[in-house]
Amino acid sequence: MSQAEVLDYCVYKDPNAAVDARIKDLLPRMTLKEKVGQMTMIERRVGTHDAIKDLSIGGMVSTGGSGPFGKVKTESSDWADMVDRFQKSALDSRLGIPLIYGIDAIHGNNSIYGATIFPHNVGLGATRDADLAQKIGEATALEVRASGIHYTFAPCVAGVVISDWRGLDRLSEPRGSNYRYCISSAINAGIDMVMVPYRYKLFVEDLTSLVESGEVQMARIDDAIERILRVKFAASVFEFPFANRSLLDTVGCKLHRDLAREAVRKSLVLLKNGKDLKNPFLPLDRNAKRILVAGTHANDLGYQCGGWTADWKGSSGNIAIGTTILDAIKEAVGDETEVVYEQYPSTETLARRDFSYAVVAVGEEPYAETLGDNSELVIPFDGVDLLSSVAGCFPTLAILISGRPLVLEPWLLEKIDALIAAWLPGSEGGGIADVVFGDHDFEGKLPVTWFKRVEQLPLHAEMNAYDPLFSLGFGLTCNKEKSPN
Question: Are 197 and 61 in contact (CB under 8 A)?
Fold first, then answer.
């Protein structure tokens, strides 16, 4: 090295130096203000250049639906541009410590238009394929990293302890009051980085004051900073702070969509197959002359994906790129088969006698967190009446799209010919067609007990009065030898 290079040399900037050595070099260089800034995670809406640079902000987050330009339907390259812009502001700070950016990619890269959306909630719990689950994690990681984002929020043993969205506000009543107490309680309890996410100026001011007054010890601050820096060094964020644009072609690619399709078919749980066990209803005849497809969830990608997809609570309609159940059926049937779709079949349609069978997809509307709280758990959108009316006219396969078990009345179960718990299958409806037409068999087993009445909840297999509609682990196959008694 030249003399100038020697003078400019910092161990923490040396990628060849050990992580511990880099932390030991950087930590003493930091002021209290910079340390507090590193413990602060802000939402992208308040991520101005000056705030990030001057306060040495340590982390950023996009809440559900908070994407580039304030739009839901954006490309991964737009996300990469946005995150890189924020990162440049961080690198302009005195010490040039890069940001870590987080997002909720909890069932695939669901916050970016065109990305792969894997089965959600109990759906992945219904498949016991550990190798598949690992592949899904890897695919999600690639798509998220392409957008410039470094990690997804999830419970884990860890990559530093980060509080949840406005989590500190919950430590006092009314929520958000006595903020100084909330901060001291959380930091002293071991929180390292705080997802503020908006009133970061107050957080920085109060935490700085708490340290100066001795209510939060500097040793606790340094402990938090060491953990934060360790994650950033170990993840090579200092060396590779910007989006890996070579991965952009992986977002929503065929390989990932095929993986999601496999996850769909392996997570479906077959709850009924024929009114007579000796005469199974599935697989369906793909060469039938005429098929009726109906239901609120038969041709709605947003309903298939559920909450936390593009937007926080999710929505109906064409919110992403993917294949609906109707699309999948049309692709799977023979060239001579006519597929008739009516969301709510008319009286005239129900009076026809030329349908070989019907496929009716019903279920819940998307929701997130407390928005989904429901003490009745009935199938919404008049789903029971729809199933009853169609099943009263034609042999019927019912597909239930939901994030949890819903009420299934005995009389309805008797009326329909087959029933699939499809959970929230995500973007690849083709996985449903794969099993209903017999290209693959059902593998999914119930990861939760299916109750008879909501009054039974909570219902666990260990309970003495365990009397489920379908027990934990239940799941039929079309292969009689594999199906449970």
Answer: yes
319 pLDDT tier (thresholds 50, 70, 90):
confident
Residues 317 and 310: their CA atoms lie apart, in Å, by: 12
Which element (helix H / strand E) includes 419? strand 418-423
User: Radius of gyration (Cα) for the chain, nearest Å?
Assistant: 26
Structure tokens at 200: 């970061």
Q: Looking at 20, 212, 331, 369, which residue is catalytic? A: 369
The amino acid sitting at 483 is S
* Among 138, 164, 338, 414, the one annotated catalytic: 164
The closest alpha carbon to 282, from 436, 391, 476, belongs to: 436
Q: What is the pTM of this model?
A: 0.92
Q: Which residues contact 94 (CB under 8 A, 6 or more apart)?
A: 34, 56
Q: What is the distance, to the nearest Å, from the Cα of residue 332 to the centroid of all Cα atoms in its chain? A: 28
411/26 Cα distance (integer angstroms):
69
**Alpha-carbon gap, residue 319 to 330, rounded angstroms:** 21
Distance of alpha carbon 413 from alpha carbon 48, whole angstroms: 56
Closest CA to 126 of 256, 266, 29, 5: 266
Q: Rounded to 5 degrees, what are φ and ψ at 278?
A: -80, -10
DSSP helix/strand/coil, 54: helix
- Yes or no: say if 297 and 401 are a contact pair by the CB < 8 Å rule: yes
Question: Across 136-184, where does the E strand assignment appear?
Answer: 151-152
Let me know if 285 is a catalytic residue.
no
Write down how long the chain is.
485
Q: How far is CA 291 from CA 257, 275, 287, 422, in A?
A: 27, 20, 10, 20
Provide the phi-psi class of 117: left if phi over 0, else alpha when psi is between -120 and 50, else beta: beta
- Angle subtended at Cα 104 by Cα 98 and Cα 109, rounded to the nearest 5 degrees: 95
Name the residue among 230, 238, 108 with its Cα closest to residue 159: 230
Is the per-residue pLDDT at 213 higher than 80? yes
- Tell me if residue 278 falls in helix, strand or coil: coil
In angstroms, rounded to a whole number, what is the distance separating the alpha carbons of residues 211 and 235? 29
CA distances (Å), origin 49, targets 86, 87, 92: 7, 9, 9
What are 378-407's pLDDT values in tens digits?
999 999 999 999 999 999 999 999 999 999
Name residue 360's amino acid.
Answer: V
Within 34-94, strands assigned E span: 40-43, 59-61
Q: What are phi and psi of 270, to 5 degrees?
A: -85, 115
164 is an active site residue: yes
Domains of the chain: 3-250 (3.20.20.300), 258-456 (3.40.50.1700)
